[in-house]
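Section handout 9: paired folding examples.
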Amino acid sequence: MQLRPAYSYRNDPAVPAFADDHPVIVFDGECIFCSGWVNFVLRHDRKGRYRFITAQSPLGEALYKHYGLDSRNYETNVLIEDGIAYLKSEGSLRMAAGLGFPWTFAGVFRVLPRSIRDPLYELVARNRYRIAGRRDSCFVPTPEHRARFLA
């Protein structure tokens, strides 16, 4: 799903400049479920491919607004890869596939139509705080991973 042309955020004065030479994951830093996903990616991203931004940061909030997303109710992670934003199930499946073997097999689920995948994604997203809870403060990376977090 491409909501806007590739790298359109570079022309948006409300979006601060950021390093986009690697795929970037924008996530809800207060959501324990979402932070767990980021920890999973950090553990399995052996090539250090992904960079991360919390949705609560000024840059994360600007990106959510740029893509027409609710910047207070973060019901999707955003994967920005090659300047294109991928949301919901598409973004998550691409994130997983980008981790390399054996996670590349997650891409198989992309054969299912979004009309099936996205409602399942949305069900989990709407209930993520009930499923895993919420942090009182935003996710803080470990010192060894701090360089992979933007803003």
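Moving on to protein 2 of 2.
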Amino acid sequence: MKLQTESEYLMLGGNVFKVYAGKGKPIYPEILYRTYDQIEAMLSHYSRVLLVRIDIRNHSAEQTNRVMTKLSSKLKKRLNTKAYGFINRLGYAWAREQKTSEAHHYHLALMLDGHKVQHPHRVIELVGDICWRSNLSAYTPRNCYYLLRRSEIDGQTLANAIYRLSYLAKVNTKDKRPSTTHDYGTSRIKPRTKRHTEAAA
């Protein structure tokens, strides 16, 4: 069983961030730890990373998270084409939730090379197209993106993004799923070595 916390602050990567938690509204720190690991890994490859928030709704109840596996696979394949500048690395984190409806939904965060993509418009359209072809719905929340910079790893933009992402880690609405089905998932981007990171800065 994952640990829970109601603390409004969480240490990530040596810095303390305010998170979406408090008395009566706990979060799972593990989800945020894993998400932050992917942000750090992406920033080790690129000095700028575009982080985009999108919600994905499933139209039918499913016992697995196969739809997210397929979505990420199709998205990576489409991004790694000439039309999108051959983006060959995609970081992501998602959380599965279900309230009162029969079908569940996902909160998704995408992380892309911020040198090739400075604005999420085309990526959002691409996600929408893949969802439409897969019997899913995509919804874009307001203020959906953040341009993160390696040189500002302790800056306000990252702090705002972490607070936004901590919503994915909330305990509420994550209990309506089979015990063998995960309530979150992330990419597995490996960080570059320090020597290579400094050379790419």
